[in-house]
Amino acid sequence: MDVDRRSIITNLFDINALKIGTFKLKSGELSEYYLDLRVIVSYPKILKQICSLVSTTILQDEANTKNQVHLCGVPYTALPIATVVSIDTNLPMLIRRKEQKTYGTKKLIEGEYSCGDDVIVIEDIITSGASILETVTDLEKSNLNVSKIIVLVDRQQGGMQRLSERGLKIKSLFNITEIVTILREEGKLSNAVYQCVYNYVINNQIQPAKEFEKPLRTKLGFKERAELLETSKIAQRIFKISLEKKSNLCVALDVDTADKLLDIAEKVAPHICILKTHIDAINGVTDATINNLQLLAKQYNFLIMEDRKMADIGNTVKLQYKKLVHWADIVTVHSVSGGMMLKGIQEVINENAESLDSRGVFIVAELSCNGNLISEQYIKETVKIAEEYKDIMAGLVCQSHDVISSPSLLQLTPGVNIKNANDNLGQQYQSPSDIILTKGADIAVVGRGIYQDDNPAEAAKVYKESLWNTYLERVSNS
Fold first, then answer.
1. Quick check: 308 and 324 in contact, CB under 8 A?
2. Is the peptide bond before 200 cis (omega within 30 degrees of 0)?
3. What are phi and psi of 384, to 5 degrees?
4. DSSP letter, residue 434
5. 309, 322, 343, 461: which is the annotated catalytic residue?
6. Quick check: pTM over 0.85?
7. Which of 36, 39, 98, 121 is in the most buried spot, having the most CB atoms within 10 Å?
């Protein structure tokens, strides 16, 4: 036994970091002992001892790595440990917030990083691994690669194995059996206390949990997501078209005349999976316009989405939708009037199921414009409604990667423009990389960046290739 390791164990006991008795853990479980490593911040020498051991472990393991490596402590106990180790190793640190900011940059991960960078996660204690997994999940959603997890103490109840089974590389510096064995040898614990802790570990193994098996939406490819049992027929159609055309581009043609609509639609058609319209805002639209649009959709294999954002009571929405269902594959809706509105749409879809291909909706959870009134609670309730009407749900319109967890639902995100950051009416634009990698979009909506370009066909091709390659980068890092 290395002297420094033994001294760390005895020092932790001397500062009362190990407590014997009955304690309630974060999970609600009752434990015969409690490890409180928060106290080490009040003992700089012991903190330095522990951090030196962590630093040595990292430098030995990462000696030949070529990727940029960051450190991230699981909040909150591991934050001071990660900070000291960052200084020791000269490796940059990231901070994962427990709650995402609702102001400023609204970042969940603080610090400078690039997509695909490696992160070593540091935690003080592991029981089930749930706290670590929360941090890992948020890092992965930000397109960072968790290369390793270092835990100070393993309570030996199955958490290490559960995270390993998820494909994570995890290493503990100490385990509870080693700790109580050393303390007994040093005369600091009686045989009775040692046996009590040992028996507790043996008799309190954690059973496998289903939540560890859920695939992360942004890491699964479209093919795998289309094959999920809970994926709706309309979402399957979108996945299928996207894969066939290698396109996750939706073009919004917010033009003012029917002639412009058809002209630009034909030019961009080879490069898109969805064409988004505001038919009620276009002058000169006739039945012939709609028919020609449908012919283009069939010829070039794309879906038509009427961005009507319906939001009335169920019966009114049902009447409105009857005028759209025969030509619009998808419509958009707001959730402000509740789920009964979707029930009305569902009834119309079922009534026309034999004569039409699958139909469905995108429900708006977030908006891309400044000053909108959507709240966090509104977003959560919108997601619940989407889950309730999954059979007609293509997905959600949103701006954040963590709104949708289900891989069967698509995230549609507007506000993409390579050249401009905003307009003078509050619209905020993002790059393809921001939209796909950071915000988690599956399908990106581009409007003025394409239809106002001198060459809409070439612009659509550029956006298509950029967005699809970024999607491939996202899933290749899984």
1. yes
2. no
3. -60, -40
4. I
5. 309
6. no
7. 121
